[in-house]
C-alpha cells in the first residue's frame, strides 16, 4: 500500500497519474502481503483389502481403524472416492476348497470358512457405512489350494475412470 500511496501522492502533484499503474501496484502489494490460496486437491483412495490385511493383521497383528485411516488420508483434500477391493468366499469356492484340502475334519473346515465369510460380510457393511465402496469378487480356488480374487484389473479400471476428477491417488 505504501507504493500505491506514494504513486497517488506523486500523481496528484504533477497530474500525470496513470490509473493502470496504480492498479498494477495494488496487485503487486496484495501478492506480497498474502499467501496464494490453492483449492484443496481431489483425492481417490484404493485399498487392496486382501494384501492390506496380510501386511497388517496377518503379519503383525495390527488392527487398523479404517475410519481414522480415511480421515488421515483425506486431510486437506476433497475425498472423491474410497475403494476397498477384496475377494469373497462363496458357497462354491468353500465347497471346492474343502474338497481340495483333504482336511481330516471337512465339516469343521466348512464351518470355519462360513464363519469367516459372515465376519467379512459384516466388515464390508461397516466399510460401506463409513465412506468406502467395497468391490468384491468371488475367490477362485486352484488345484494346489491357492486362493485368489485377481482384482488388479478392476482397481486399474477404477483408477483410470477417475483420471479427470482427481488430482491425487492413494494406493
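-> sequence recovered:
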Amino acid at each position: 500500500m505504501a507504493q500505491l500511496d506514494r504513486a497517488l501522492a506523486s500523481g496528484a502533484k504533477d497530474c500525470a497519474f496513470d490509473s493502470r499503474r496504480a492498479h498494477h501496484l495494488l496487485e503487486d502489494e496484495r501478492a506480497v502481503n498474502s499467501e496464494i490460496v490453492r483449492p484443496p486437491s481431489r483425492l481417490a483412495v484404493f485399498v487392496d483389502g486382501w494384501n492390506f490385511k496380510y501386511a497388517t493383521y496377518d503379519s503383525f497383528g495390527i488392527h487398523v481403524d479404517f475410519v481414522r485411516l480415511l480421515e488421515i488420508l483425506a486431510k486437506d483434500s476433497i475425498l472423491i472416492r474410497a475403494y476397498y477391493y477384496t475377494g469373497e468366499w462363496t458357497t462354491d469356492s468353500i465347497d471346492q476348497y474343502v474338497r481340495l484340502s483333504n482336511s481330516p475334519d471337512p465339516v469343521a473346515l466348512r464351518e470355519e470358512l462360513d464363519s469367516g465369510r459372515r465376519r467379512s460380510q459384516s466388515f464390508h457393511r461397516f466399510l460401506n457405512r463409513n465412506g468406502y465402496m467395497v468391490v468384491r469378487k468371488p475367490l477362485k480356488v486352484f488345484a494346489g489350494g491357492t486362493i485368489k480374487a485377481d482384482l488388479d484389473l478392476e482397481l486399474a479400471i477404477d483408477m483410470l475412470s477417475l483420471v479427470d476428477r482427481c488430482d491425487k491417488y492413494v494406493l
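Confidence is low (pLDDT under 50) at residues 1-5, 11-17.
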